[in-house]
Amino acid sequence: MVDAGTQTSAYNAAGICPDDDLVTDPATTRSPEPPVTPSLGGAREMELIRRILSGDRSLFYELIQPYERVVFLAANSILQNDADAEEVAQESFLRALEKLATFRGEARFSTWLVQIAINDARMRLRRSKRYQVQSADEPVSAVDDEEYFPRDLADWREIPSEALERKELREALKRAVASLKPHYRDVFLLRDVQHLSIAETAKALGLKEATVKVRLLRARLMMRDALAPGYDGSWTIGETGWKKVRPW
Amino acid sequence: MSTMEISCVEVWREISNYVENDIEPELRRRIEDHFRICEHCTAVLDGTRNVVKLVGDGRAFHPPKGFSERLRSRLSAEGGAR
Q1: Is the Cβ of B69 closer than 8 Å to some Cβ of chain A?
Q2: How far apart are CA A34 and CA A194, in angstroms?
């Protein structure tokens, strides 16, 4: 179990920044350090932390506001329930406030917060009878021996990012993520949704980097299959080939 | 100079590292040679990239409506933070 309060090792300089890094040129590849969430910057964060620790707790929301989404999604990746994830996220922020003096800046503040949220969500999961206890710290051998190969080899055509404005696509993505086993889902959400680096994802989940890479591969392939033409009935093949019938 | 051919299964095992650009140059060349002749693996690559692109877009996943307001309210009530 990772204790965010005592975690001290350094991370790769990757992670949480604005915007996506999405490649449109098929010849290019994704940067391993994509930006997503506007951060305050390390110096500003450390200044806020210093002032909060000096007694001005009113500044705490300014400190954590850029990371609301990432903390909620981290909790939801474990709990798969919006209401529970929101409650855990709130409690994690309160815990972060109480433990703020233990944050020494070796890790990104966002990663530190995510670790707290993941630990809190796992605790909630273990306590709850509504959930089957199955988390990313299950023995690696039980999870990572199973190889996964693509099931649908048809050309998918790109789904444009603009289609995300449509609720149908967002719901389809949500269903696809929910269909992943927790071990894959946790890694996938931290790396691909929240843009933590491989190293940060490994640290946050208490896994080896090699394990993160293996699970990430399978999660991406599973997600592709879940959204691929022909596999979920969203596309049909007629006399003229693939016919698009998706609502987006 | 010709490079050693690589199978579809080997490409699939490396496709995530390929997307991450976390791969040795020689293996990268072999995979790219394979993409030129294998439409199935190209489809897997395109689909994988599309998945990464879509879920990485900030619009794909959101906290519930009112999340920020409720968070601020609880921080204020229980943590002395506003």
Answers
A1: no
A2: 9
